[in-house]
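Hypothesis: this fold can be encoded by more than one sequence.
Test: take the structure tokens below, design a sequence, compare later.
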């Protein structure tokens, strides 16, 4: 029997799009999950006034939130009804090369493509999907193509908590309410190319300043995705400390109490909001100023605080929440003594190691199963969030300061004139994997390279020497 429930917009909650059949194996409930996604031009009302011509998945903005479980065998039946080639990239998921939706596998207008992958054990977390065609990623995401992916573990320690998904993205509109995408050689186009395109309207789940309700005393789990092309959010909830419990690849070992959390573009955070206010209170989740820019093109409004959403306390009497478990889940250590190479990546404006992206070049070749350290050095006076496809890594240090806790990541924001080191193991899937700056304008203009992971039997002839 085919169950094909349509997903509802994100603000109404998390919905599994559909599944074909389901069976249980002794240790792991392994299901087959089938999802149908169609990208197509759509007119939707996003801001007051005339509707806007955008691109959507299944007619929704953002696209439907997909919910999977560890062990699921997923097939996404994709259809491209856009007037141009596209792909769907499963940002952060560990999957076969042919299902990565990188620029190596474009889907032409009118064509279909099946993305087939199994959700790996231990990968419960918050991910997202977005197009990744050659040179057009920023354009297609600006037009509205992105959505959340939630992967759940059977033994999720926070499963009892009420959950909110918060997909943040900014955009800019012309006077006629069309998406403002300036010509690349115009003044605004050049600023976008330097800074990364930002907009003054911030959407949370496709809405401006939505409201989340909380009961006094309640603890909520928030999954935050920064789907913006370039904007970084420094989240703060006045009067509330936040419990930071997870990042790109899922939960930490232990919750960390903080006043604010920086979410660079393409990063995700999981946090717990404790309803320490009183019934009827209202607070606003804010983005505090964050200076990621070079002074020459820094927007004048960079130091404004932005309101993202309202947290409205209900009138109900307070409840007492259960304590947050001390151990969330074990996060295995990637042992630096097992590293067989250190890869140095030097970022300059628009380039990695002095080169622009070339589909026919392999920048790093490595053996399947190898563990390596990447050292990313940013010579530029603006931040560059560095992303690797295919494999989750662990950040070792930033600017030489050891990371305060162990976490699975797929994006690390490399601060201006700073550096970051991470360790990664190329487990399971051979293929060509992109690494790039996730400021979409930088990525589209070639601030990207290719890691080729090669199976042992093919390896010897082709492995590059240590780059450092
Ligand atoms: Cu979010 Cu190359 O991807
Ligand atoms: Cu990616
Ligand atoms: Cu960049």
């Amino acid at each position: 029997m085919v169950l094909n429930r349509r997903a509802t917009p994100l603000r109404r909650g998390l919905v599994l799009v559909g599944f074909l059949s389901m069976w249980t194996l002794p240790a792991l409930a392994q299901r087959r999950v089938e999802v149908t996604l169609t990208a197509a031009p759509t007119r939707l009302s996003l801001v007051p006034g005339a509707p806007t011509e955008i691109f959507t998945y299944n007619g929704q903005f953002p696209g439907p939130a997909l919910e999977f479980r560890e062990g699921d065998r997923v097939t996404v039946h994709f259809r491209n009804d856009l007037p141009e080639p596209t792909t769907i990239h499963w940002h952060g998921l560990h999957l076969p090369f042919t299902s990565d939706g990188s620029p190596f596998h474009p889907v032409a207008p009118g064509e279909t493509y099946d993305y087939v992958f199994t959700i790996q054990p231990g990968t419960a977390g918050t991910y997202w999907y977005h197009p990744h065609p050659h040179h057009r990623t920023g354009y297609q995401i600006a037009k509205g193509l992105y959505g959340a992916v939630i992967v759940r573990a059977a033994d999720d320690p926070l499963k009892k908590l009420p959950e909110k998904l918060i997909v943040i993205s900014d955009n800019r509109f012309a006077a006629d309410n069309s998406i403002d995408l300036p010509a690349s050689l115009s003044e605004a186009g050049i600023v976008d190319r330097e800074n990364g395109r930002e907009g003054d309207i911030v959407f949370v789940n496709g809405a401006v300043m939505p409201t989340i309700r909380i009961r006094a005393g309640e603890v909520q789990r928030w999954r935050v995705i920064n789907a913006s092309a370039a904007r970084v959010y420094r989240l703060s909830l006045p009067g509330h400390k936040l419990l930071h419990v997870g990042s790109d690849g899922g939960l930490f070992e232990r919750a960390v109490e903080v006043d604010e959390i920086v979410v660079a573009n393409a990063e995700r955070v999981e946090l717990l909001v404790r309803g320490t206010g009183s019934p009827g209170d209202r607070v606003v989740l804010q983005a505090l100023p964050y200076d990621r820019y070079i002074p020459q093109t820094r927007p004048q409004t960079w130091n404004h605080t932005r309101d993202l959403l309202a947290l409205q306390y209900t009138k109900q009497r307070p409840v007492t929440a259960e304590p947050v478990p001390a151990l969330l889940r074990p996060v295995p250590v990637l042992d630096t003594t097992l590293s067989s190479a250190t890869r140095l990546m030097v970022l300059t404006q628009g380039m990695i190691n002095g080169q622009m992206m070339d589909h026919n070049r392999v920048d790093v070749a490595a053996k399947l199963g190898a563990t390596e350290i990447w050292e990313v050095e940013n010579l530029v006076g603006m931040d560059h969030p560095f992303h690797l496809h295919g494999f989750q890594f662990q950040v070792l240090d930033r600017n030489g300061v050891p990371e305060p806790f162990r976490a699975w990541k797929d994006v690390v924001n490399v601060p201006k004139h700073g550096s970051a080191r991470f360790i990664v193991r190329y487990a399971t899937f051979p293929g060509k994997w992109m690494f790039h700056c996730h400021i979409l304008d930088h990525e589209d203009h070639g601030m990207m390279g290719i890691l080729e992971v090669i199976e042992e039997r093919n390896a010897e002839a082709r492995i590059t020497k240590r780059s450092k």
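Residues 89, 91, 387, 389 surround copper (II) ion (ligand 2) (CB under 6 Å). The first helix runs from residue 137 to 142.
Hypothesis status: open.
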